[in-house]
Each structure stands twice: as structure tokens, then as C-alpha cells.
Amino acid sequence: MALADNDEDNYFSEKYLFLKAEVASWIDCLRILHSKDLEKRDFCNTEIGGEVTGSRYRWIVFISVLLQKALLYIKTPMAALGAAIELCLNYPAFNHHLLFNIFTGRLVKPDRASPKFTSMVGNIDRRWDLRRHYYGNKAAPSISIMASKLSYENESFARNVVTHHWQMEFIGFFEFWNDFQEAKSTYATMLRDKNRIVIAFRGTEPFDADAWRTDVDVSWYDIPSAGKIHGGFMKALGLQKSTGWPKHAPSPPKSFAYYTLRERLKTLIQENGEAKFILTGHSLGGALAILFVGILAMHEDEYLLRRLEGVYTFGQPKVGNEQFGEYMKQKLKLYDIKYFRYVYCNDVVPRLPYDEKAFLFKHFGSCLYFNSCYKGKVLEDEADNNYFSLLYVVPKVLNAVYELVRGFILPWIKGEEYREGWFMTLFRLTALITPGLTNHFPLDYDNATRLQKPGLVQLN
User: Fold this and answer.
1) Which of 179, 347, 381, 444 is catalytic?
2) Core-most of 218, 237, 293, 395, by most CB within 10 Å?
3) Is 225 annotated in the active site?
4) Which of the residues 64, 230, 440, 446 is marked catalytic?
């Protein structure tokens, strides 16, 4: 298919919607709601013609572009605020006598590259023990959620935990290039335990505007025989502007997540013929984990697909439409790959993009759904799929009240490891106004994994 210069980004897909929020003006955002020719706008590149003119479709495009514009606008102050909060949270770890050091002028400023420095996720949940619940058929889910949490931390911290606490091999901490954002915005951690290699993709950090842009970008590409796939996730995984998804790895210097990890895996497996690997991630990281399998399948990489033990995601958003789901279910069955998608209670992210007639994004595979009592069951899809329904506002608020109280009770019932710190308690209070957002934190997914019944994952 021959394309004009402005279409070179999409040569591999004949049907697509490619939004460029960075070139849209605030006036352009308003024009979306009444424009009948969005495909002629500089910020909207598409080959689906009149489909974009529907009011429902234009409304979703409007929300996506508006949010991306806002995130671009506040990117710098947002990062500065996040950095300041993280710095403050780490002062106690670097000052054993904090008040004394303040008054005597001996205050030690936290070093972000230090193995003692923790991210906001790490401050919310400080549990890094693994062996206590790393056994039997809970082994893979347990190491997956812990690796997913660890992916939010700096390299020195991750190396220290993996090497000294888990007694495993730390293979690497990776920063990957996003060709469309023209920045390194995708991260992953790789470790090995005997014959099992684990790759954990980092999810959406609270103050990372680029990661949030990836989440709210409703661009999509319709891949022949595979279906419609979320464009933001594809860009984060390694989609390239000029060549799309070539089968062979591009030349340096830019490092793309899919190609770098694929080649690293092949090298490790060639060194150990018995090795298998696990893909995991929380939030955006979960979407990248399962999409990694999808691209391997499109490239017909049987060598790695037959070495893939399983995919474990936590709070993962929807990656594609129903056709893509059917395509993936066939490939997962063909290569005997386990896929477990954990969803905790009212977590809003697994319900995004929400069910509607315009984009038709759908989950696939079994959902391991846990209620606020951490009782798990296997469902076709999570309960209350339409998070934004007004019918569920009151039940969500009441559930947030219960979770706030539960934070004080659970340690007495299950043990000290379930005690929540003041920072998490503060977030529990905010959930009374915005229920569902707090449910997305890895802490509840860690609790659910620790308390799940041993046979739950065997029901898939």
C-alpha cells in the first residue's frame, strides 16, 4: 500500500486512527465536537472516512485530545510535584533521627539513585518479602506481582532487592524509546530464578504525564487478521514512525522495548536450553505484557512463544477489540500459554476504555476478580464493567468506607504484613470522593495474591 508522506507512520495498517495531540491547538479541541471532516485536520490522521463524523466517536476523540493537551501543558510542573513528594517521603529513610538532623543542620538529602530510595508506589507498599508466600501454584502469581511492584523502583533498589532479599539474578533495568513521544518513556525490569526468567513492565506512575498520555491516547491500528489494537500501547512497546512493526530488530542507537527484550530473551534461552519466561506488569505494564505476546504471534516467533510460561497482569486496561481478543485466544491456546488477568474490586483502569459502540475495545481471557474482602473468583469479565454508570456511585462510596476501616482491622486478622501506612490511609480517605482510583494501587493486588486460594489459577 503506497502512502503519502504524512501517512508513513501507518503503512502497516489500512484502517487506523492516529491522533497527534501535540500539534492540536485548544481551538482544534473545540472544533472536534462539530467538525464533519476530522480526517482533514493536522492532528487527526485516519483512513476510516465517515466513521469519525459520528457524534459519539467525535466526543471520545475530543476527550482523548483534550486530556493529552492538558497533560502536555502540565507535564513539567506535574513531574516537579511528583519529584518533591517522593523526595519528602524518602527523608526518613536517609535520616534515622530526622527531627534531630533538621535542628542540628545535619539533614541528609535523599539520593534518587540509592538502593534506599523508593518510588511513591514503594512508599505506599513497603513489603518486599517473597519467599514466605512463594510456593506451589502460587509461585508465578506471587513473583509476578512483586516484580511488577519492583519495576517502579530505581535500578539500584531493584538490584538490591532481587540479589539480596530474593536471592535471584538481576539481569537488567531497561529504559526504552517511544518514537512518537520522542523520549524514553517505557521501562522494564528483568530477573531470573533458576530456569525462570521474569520480565516486568512498569505501569503508569502517578506523576508521569507521558505514561498518562499513553493511557488516554485512543489512537488505534487495525492489523489484518489480528484486529484493532490500542495505538498508545503499541507506541510504548516499540512501534516505529517510519517502519511500523518490522520483523527484524532496528539498528541502534534507539532502544525499542519489544525488540530489545526479544533479543535479550533469545540470548538467555540459548544459554540455558531449559529456560522459560514470564511476562507481567501492573496497569500500563500489564497492557504491554500481553501486547508483547501479540506482536510475537504476528511475527510468528515460535521459538519464544513455546518458551513463554505465562502472562500475569494486574489492573490491566483493554488492549484491543473483540477480533484481537479472538486472535489472541487462538494463539494462547496454540502455544499453551497461561494468561491470568487480575482485577481488584472497583479498580477503574481495567474498565478503560469503557464499553461503548464506537471503539468496541474488549478484554479477553479469564478474569481473576477479587472483591474488597479479597475473595477471588474466575469470571468472563470483571463485575460492573461500565464504571461510569451513576447506578454504582453509592455502592462504590460505601465500599471505599469499608476499605478505609478494613485497613485498621486487617492486621489484627491476617498479621502485621497487612498493616497500611499513613500515606495509604490518606489515599483511602480520598477514595470517598473518587472511589475506584485507590483500588488501582499495587498494594491491593499484592494482598489479593497473598490471600488467594491456592487452586484459583488452575481454573483457567
Assistant:
1) 347
2) 237
3) no
4) 440
The single residue of 13, 283, 363, 444 carrying the catalytic annotation is 283
Q: What is the 3-state secondary structure (H, E, C) of the chain?
A: CCCCHHHHHHCCCCEEEEECHHHCCHHHHHHHCCCCCHHHCCCEEECCHHHHHCHHHHHHHHHHHHHHHHHHHHHHHHHHHHHHHHHHHHHHHHCCCHHHHHHHCCCCCCCCCCCCCCCHHHHHCCCCCCHHHCCHHHHHHHHHHHHHHHCCCCHHHHHHHHHHHCCCEEEEEEEEEECCCCEEEEEEEEEEECCEEEEEECCCCCCCHHHHHHHHCCCEEEECCCEEEEHHHHHHHCCECCCECCCCCCCCCCCCHHHHHHHHHHHHHHHCCCCEEEEEEECHHHHHHHHHHHHHHHCCCHHHHCCEEEEEEECCCCCEEHHHHHHHHHHHHHCCCEEEEEEECCCCHHHCCCCCCCCCEECCCCEEEECCCCCEEEECCCCCCCCCCHHHHHHHHHHHHHHHHHHHHHHHHHCHHHCCCHHHHHHHHHCCCCCCCHHHCHHHHHHHHHHCCCCHHHHC
283 labelled catalytic? yes
Query: Is 282 a catalytic site residue?
Result: no
pTM score above 0.85: yes
125-155 pLDDT, tens digit each: 999 988 656 666 678 899 999 999 999 999 9
